[in-house]
Design a protein that fits this description.
It is built from six helices and eleven strands. By secondary structure, the protein is α+β, with helices and mostly antiparallel strands. It has one domain: Sandwich (Jelly Rolls), CATH 2.60.120.620. The strands form two sheets. Strands 1-9-6-11-4-3-2 form a seven-stranded antiparallel sheet. It starts with 19 loop residues before the first helix and ends in an 18-residue tail after the last helix. 47% of the residues are buried. It binds 2-oxoglutaric acid (AKG).
């Protein structure tokens, strides 16, 4: 994603955060999980490339977060930081990107790094449960936040094509995992995520334009890095990730995933945290022109990721 973020400097951020709203909404929660992953779950993640560990936010917390995201969608829009993930204009250098104007009512809202500007979202992003699970899945004792997102896929016939997250990240190693938390129940009808099981064992692939599947950066990636294929043609089982609101799905940076059209009459909302193992090496624009330049994050290519934009998440 090359959308620019002008979120500005991190304001004296307190990792313990003001969790009042979110914490208050946890009262009376049942069915929520905070226990560590089991060895069996970690093995399942290794085999499939993704895992559904359970519910991390109560129904009241989900409602609270929906309202937070609604408020932030307005303020990010006003600040010029509300992006449409399926808008080909975000990939101006990709030759065959369809530049037909998109119907704004069919947007796929993509908000970036809300933890930097909002205490309520930050409290959710800094929850220790998913950070601990990420560390377990990455086999590390410390994880950093690479970025957060709020997503809202409006009703539309458009799908998100098969891709892997690592293709878009300025990292020398794919030591990263995405936690995708449903803020609405997801099903095939409203465009639930699809996972190509075992695809993470096939290694790095080229990035694609999310709305068209057109690969790019072929010229700057090693020749061994090829296109994401069609999972079914390759015999990779595809699973529909049907989640209850508040439930999380965690996928490896190398796992191919996609999502179908939202054929319901309401948005399909989610919040996302992308965790990276502490010690992973930053490559910056040398690998992918990310939302922040090397200067902004204060990292030179080859240095371990760190600094104010990539905080350690305590657990
Ligand atoms: O929410 C979706 O439909 C796609 C999101 C995605 O690809 C991701 O979060 O990595």
């Amino acid at each position: 994603m090359r959308a620019r973020s002008d979120a500005g400097a991190v304001q004296g951020h307190d990792p313990t955060g003001d969790a009042t709203g979110l914490a208050a909404a946890a009262n009376g929660a049942d069915g929520m999980r905070t226990s560590p992953l089991t060895a069996e779950e970690i093995t399942t993640f290794y085999e499939k490339g993704y895992l559904r560990p359970g519910k991390v936010f109560s129904d009241d917390q989900v409602e609270f977060l929906r309202n937070v995201v609604q408020r932030l969608t307005r303020t990010e829009d006003e600040a010029g930081r509300r992006y449409d993930l399926l808008d080909p204009a975000l990939w101006p250098d990709v030759d065959d990107a369809d530049d037909a104007p998109r119907d704004p009512s069919q947007s796929f809202d993509f908000l970036f790094n809300l933890w930097l500007t909002d205490d309520d979202f930050r409290a959710a992003v800094f929850n220790p449960t998913t950070a601990r699970w990420a560390a377990q899945l990455l086999g590390t004792t410390s994880v950093r936040l690479l970025e957060d997102n709020a997503l809202n896929k409006s009703p539309s016939p458009h799908d998100v094509r098969w891709h892997q997250d690592y293709s878009y990240w300025p990292l020398a190693q794919p030591n990263a995992v995405t936690a995708w938390i449903a803020l609405d129940d997801t099903s095939r009808q409203n465009g639930a995520m699809l996972m190509a099981c075992g695809s993470h064992h096939l290694g790095e692939r080229l990035p694609v334009v999310f709305g068209t599947g057109t690969p790019y950066l072929r010229e700057s990636r090693p020749a061994t890095v090829t296109e994401v294929g069609d999972p079914e043609e390759l015999g990779l089982p595809v699973e529909v990730v049907e989640l209850a609101a508040g439930e999380v799905s965690m996928h490896s940076a190398l796992t191919w995933h996609a999502s179908g059209p939202n054929l319901s009459d309401r948005g399909r909302r989610a919040m996302v945290m992308r965790y990276v193992a502490d010690g992973t090496v930053w490559l910056g624009a040398q690998r992918y022109e990310y939302n922040y330049t090397d200067e902004e994050v204060g990292l030179a290519p080859g240095e371990p990721i760190g600094g104010r934009y990539f905080p350690v998440i305590p657990f």
